[in-house]
Amino acid sequence: MRVVITGAGGFVGSALLQRLATSGRLSPNTPQISELVAVDSVVSGGPEGAVILEGDIRDASVQQRIAEKPCDVIFHLAAVPGGAAARDYDLGWSVNVEATAALFAAVAAQDNPARLVFSSSIGVFGVPLPKDRVDDATLPLPTMSYGAQKLMMEILLADYARRGLIDGIAVRLPGIIARPRQPGGHLSAYMSDILHALAAGEKFTCPVSRTAASWFMSRRRCVDNLVHAATASAEALGDRRCFNLPALHLTMDELVEGVVEHFGPSVRDLVDYAPDATLEAQFGAYPPIETAIADAAGFVHDGAAADLVSRALDLESTKTANTGAVA
Amino acid sequence: MRVVITGAGGFVGSALLQRLATSGRLSPNTPQISELVAVDSVVSGGPEGAVILEGDIRDASVQQRIAEKPCDVIFHLAAVPGGAAARDYDLGWSVNVEATAALFAAVAAQDNPARLVFSSSIGVFGVPLPKDRVDDATLPLPTMSYGAQKLMMEILLADYARRGLIDGIAVRLPGIIARPRQPGGHLSAYMSDILHALAAGEKFTCPVSRTAASWFMSRRRCVDNLVHAATASAEALGDRRCFNLPALHLTMDELVEGVVEHFGPSVRDLVDYAPDATLEAQFGAYPPIETAIADAAGFVHDGAAADLVSRALDLESTKTANTGAVA
After folding, report:
1. Are residues A277 and A226 in contact, defined by beta-carbon separation less than 8 angstroms?
2. Which of A197, A207, A301, A321 can bridge A276 by disulfide, Cβ–Cβ 3.0-4.6 Å?
């Protein structure tokens, strides 16, 4: 079984790469991975046994090496994220659309359709979001180029799937935490930074209000779900191949309470709130999310705030038991 | 005022070209058209005064000539239609996506945002359609590559509009009638052929059932709406720049009754029905359509079956009065 990960040097990709290199297979029921190809501009600390393919996903030579042998599973995670895609439109377009469409075309050309897992984003929904809820029937109306680009590629992937050329699935990821504290293209960095700060006993000024509600998923749970997307049967997935993943819907207060369960009540005093209007509007007004399609297909969220925090910070154990379908 | 029409040799484009060449302006309230550029591979019988630009919309030189001077209004109608885009995927992709995206980029680069009217399609909705109705909140789930491609370009155009680089508007056209009786890429040719046959007193075997319900618009009314899209104020249009146009929701029986009003009851005996399962599923199960956004912005359908038939066949007068906002 040949497995390819693009964006393998990224926050989610590196964790997925590590997981697959360690286990040697996608799930107990799937064959051994014979070749694990990790694609990114830089794949630092790539695990032993993986084929590291460093280069620009936009380069024909890189695309060619990805497709030089048939893929059984390809995780296409490489992307220019929201903030960066807004600052440099051409860069975002070339990676998020042109290189992605080229990759789909290359994968579609192989004889047996590959399972292609595409990391889309809740950024396909613009702001303001519907006030009552988001569900599988919610019309995506992007208000960022990043979201528009992800949505276009969802549609293209669904068309390839309908034509039987790619066994494609696009999962819309919510905010994945906890990203390392470093400058990045992500406007939602504060969702991760608050956890790192509180875990380190540092004060944190939150740029959204304490009642700002967002959708969260830990990186570990995200990797669980990506692997599930790669292994779920066509019957379990059904016809809609682009959908929202389950996510925890939490206010910042509720997230902080999840930290309290691990680090004690004193962390409450470390947080003060100085809402930024733009961030509040972009990330702080998420309604409840209903994910019937993903639920039926066996995808799961983190269960509870404390579990989210535990997985997000790679704490040794979770406080509460939570055994989801893909746990 | 410089106005460009791509697809100007096509069924809708040629009528739009003729309309604008004759009137010399988009509406009584807009300036004289100083240059009217008609782009297509062939523009036969192009009216005097128009600049005929024959070539392939995919050629950089053609794109360059379109954008060599700033456009005030551009109608982008050039497309590979549904049946043809399914038969030749690469052709559809290159015209419906690549050339369209290149055109958008060229138009976006001019200093003052041009009003760009993009003819999208109800093909963005796959089949089966929702049973109760389609409205502005209906999630498009294309089941033809043509619809997927139109939808992707809607999303791209909306993103350019949001960024303030193109004053874009995408209107989803229903079945436009009455196309000339000739082989074409349109699977829905029967919607037009039945009118030509009955008007000529010929028998017609209808490939969908008498109760097959579809959405219809006459070519003349379509041109009315395209011109309205080019001239409506930003205030009238609002934020949602991609939407469904009003259309008459008629069964084939009701359409035939529209013909009866012009040609008498004997035409009923000319029709027999031999439904084709594929056509019936693709075109014959359209629910009512509610178009609140388009209605508010002043777009209109044909009013009644007899008016539809009259405009579709270019009969001299309509049987019933119907003065819509753009009539």
Report:
1. no
2. A207
Name the residue of chain B whose CA is nearest to A105's CA: B90
Residues B149 and B196 in one domain: no
Residue B148 shares a structural domain with residue B8: yes
Q: Is B96 within the bounds of a domain?
A: yes
Q: A80 and A228: one domain?
A: yes
**Do A82 and A164 have their domain in common?**
yes
* B103-144: pLDDT as tens digits: 999 999 999 999 999 999 999 999 999 999 999 999 999 999
| Contact assessment for residue B145 and residue B88, using Cβ atoms and an 8 Å cutoff | no
Helix (H), strand (E) counts: chain A: 13, 12
- Token representation of residue B149: 């491609």
- Average pLDDT for runs of 10 along chain A of length 327: 97 96 94 97 89 96 96 97 91 98 97 98 94 96 97 98 98 93 76 96 97 97 98 93 97 97 97 95 93 97 97 73 40
**Does B161 reach chain A within 8 Å, measured CB to CB?**
no
Total number of domains in chain B:
2
3-state helix, strand and coil shares in percent for chain B, rounded to the nearest 5: 40, 20, 40
What pLDDT score was predicted for residue B185?
Answer: 52
Upstream peptide bond of B178 is cis (omega within 30 degrees of 0) = yes
Same domain, B196 and B114: no
The Cα–Cα gap between A154 and A168 comes to 9
Structure tokens that stand for A121 in this block? 């984003």
Note if B146 is an active site residue: yes
Q: What is the pLDDT of residues B287-302, one digit of tens each?
A: 999 999 999 999 999 9
Chain A hits for B137, CB-CB cut-off 8 Å, are 139
Q: Is residue B117 domain-shared with residue B63, that is, in the same domain?
A: yes
Q: Are residues B118 and B257 in the same domain?
A: no
**pLDDT mean across residues, chain B:** 93
Nearest to A152 among B142, B152, B163 (CB): B152
The domain of B42 spans: 2-174+216-244
